[in-house]
Design goal:
four-stranded mixed β-sheet, 2 domains, 22% strand, 9 helices, Spore Coat Polysaccharide Biosynthesis Protein SpsA, Chain A, seven-stranded mixed β-sheet, 39% helix, alpha/beta
Length: 259
């Protein structure tokens, strides 16, 4: 089996970095890239990592492109500082043969997300492009997320093992439901959507928030989680409403005071 480098990009992650590093002790190499922490992140990282690097924030994609070039191995696995690799995912990787991996560029990894300490049923499987051959993929320039593409769809495989997100985090209400935080992030997304030719219509503003609510509350069975599931579905609706409102503002030139 080819070697693999696990890279954890983080900042101020003292509460979650230890469990993240513990979950990847099986890796051939562990690199921690810190974008400038003021807590005990450096101390914890140096306890676990083969290499600890401080690099000013380059943006979501830029930071990870930089980090990928630090890897000794061609196969790379990205984790964030508040994520962990499940034992099932580790075992699944370790079963791959070199012959199998020669036919692949990218492994799609599902993620279990936790909000306020509870698993979010409606966000599963949240598949991410986190395990890849760094010389055989291209990178998408997304403002809020880093994503990669294989040279051909036939060279992609979905994994069943998963990443755990914020399982050990004590993040509170404002980390998930703050209108100000959502508005700031979604305006960035709206500007990128506009640059790519997307426009907000009346139908988008009327129907998309309702469709988002129905997706997460009914289709994704959020109703089984009671009030918590209702809050998650409402969060999706509000985020969608803010995103298309921001897009409408951008296309009409009303966002200049914010940027």
């Amino acid at each position: 089996m080819p070697g693999i480098t696990v890279i954890i990009c983080c900042a101020n992650s003292e509460e979650t970095l230890g469990p993240a590093c513990d979950s990847v002790r099986w890796a051939d190499e562990l690199i921690v890239v810190d974008s400038g922490s003021a807590d005990r992140t450096a101390e914890i990282a140096q306890k676990y990592a083969d290499r600890y690097v401080v690099e000013p924030w380059r943006g979501y994609g830029g930071q990870k492109k930089f980090a990928a070039e630090l890897a000794t191995h061609e196969w790379v696995f990205f984790l964030d500082g508040d994520e962990e690799c499940s034992p099932q995912l580790a075992e699944e990787w370790q079963r791959f043969t070199e012959t199998e991996l020669d036919r692949l560029d990218l492994l799609m990894v599902p993620r279990k997300n936790y909000v306020l300490g509870r698993y979010v049923r409606g966000w599963w499987p949240d598949r991410l492009t986190r395990i890849f051959h760094r010389r055989r993929v291209t990178w998408d320039d997304e403002v809020l997320h880093d994503t990669r593409k294989a040279s051909d769809p036939s060279r992609v495989r979905d994994l069943s093992g998963w990443i755990e997100h914020k399982r050990h985090s004590d993040a509170g209400y404002s980390d998930y439901f703050s209108g100000k935080r959502m508005d700031e992030r979604l305006l960035m997304v709206a500007r990128q959507m506009h640059e790519r030719g997307k426009r907000a219509s009346v139908l988008d503003l009327i129907f998309r928030p309702w469709l988002a609510f129905l997706k997460f509350y009914i289709l994704k069975r959020g109703f089984l989680d009671g009030m918590f599931g209702l809050l998650i579905a409402q969060k999706a609706a509000v985020s969608t409403q803010l995103k298309y409102s921001a897009l409408w503002a951008v296309q009409n030139g009303y966002d200049s005071a914010d940027g």
